[in-house]
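A student in our group prepared the protein record below, which I am reviewing. Thanks in advance; the entry in question is below.
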Amino acid sequence: MIHAPAAGRPALLPALAAMTWLQALVALALFAPGAVAPSAHLDIASLSMFSTAVFAVGVVTSFWTGGLINRLGSLRMASLCAGAVVTSMALAAFGSGSALLLAGLCLGLAFGPETPASTALLGRLVTDQRRALVFSLRQTGNQIGAVCGSLALPAIAIWLAPQWSYAAVAACAICGIVAFEWLRPRYEGMAQAPPQLGMRARLALVSSDRRIAALAVASMPFSGMQLALNTYFVTLGVREIGLSHLEAGAALACAQAGGLLGRLGWGFLAMRIGSARLVLIGLGLGMTACAATFGFCGGILGKSGQYALAAAFGVTASGWNGVFLAEVARLAPQDRIGETTGAVLTASYAGLLATPVIISTIESFAGLAGAFVSLAILAFSGTAALIRGNAQ
């Protein structure tokens, strides 16, 4: 049960719904260019530029957003993030490379603050016993946005125009602003963001434990693989696997549905076997196999095989986050769990920044399939780091 409020606190469920919607909005906007790319005639370089801009700004804003959340409150910050989504989609609708770059820079202003804003509010509303469940449910917003975008945005782009796909995302964000502002008075003064750490302090936290350092190393290619699935898979499906735009969108929706199940199921499995790290190693090997198979022979699998492999790809490449964060929390000093988690996520952001550059470079001479094979090699290397870290 999650609907009963903690003593003396406002109700949890409206805040949880709002913050889940915020993550879904950001995910929907982040995946929108990739979902409409074939109809909008966006090349890999443009998609990579957009993604790099989002994550570059997101990394920078993650360093100073805590103080802003404490001053404005989480729901006002949510409204500002939704406003950044509206502006980003308006810029993306122009369709040019420069407009897409500006759209990415603007969306980064939402990508960086949205998770700290949610954590700051929900952390004050939930009891310790329900914390893991509530935060896991909130994380499903990423898959909710991705599944909706994968199914709806390609269809809108084909039947109307890519600009209408961006307009649909902006309309959802405007509805979000109305809801956030309506809820805001109920939760005034509830947000308390964790202290912000500089880069040197983050590196010191990560390097203090070899097992945490191994998790940080593995998170870079794992994050990159998740980005590649979300941003480039539709283009891979249309250009090199032989799917239509709608079929590629449906395959990506299968992957995102698999990721949703994985986020919930892998945590349960880790609890049953008593080893989150072992589950992470298995997921690393799984995403390696899926990416390599799509790269080497995705076009000869047949439609049912392609959909099944896409679902397996999502279960592994989009389902690892919850188990990963749980393992970080287990290894971190108990009085510095939040700070350690933020420090390790810095490595994940580095993977998100590097992946578009890697894909653009490799795609220019080996195709997008070759880029996915290269990401498979990197993911295997990250898995090997986990195995070595566990042995030490």
The radius of gyration is 20 Å. The mean pLDDT is 83. Residues 46 and 97 are 6 Å apart (CA to CA).
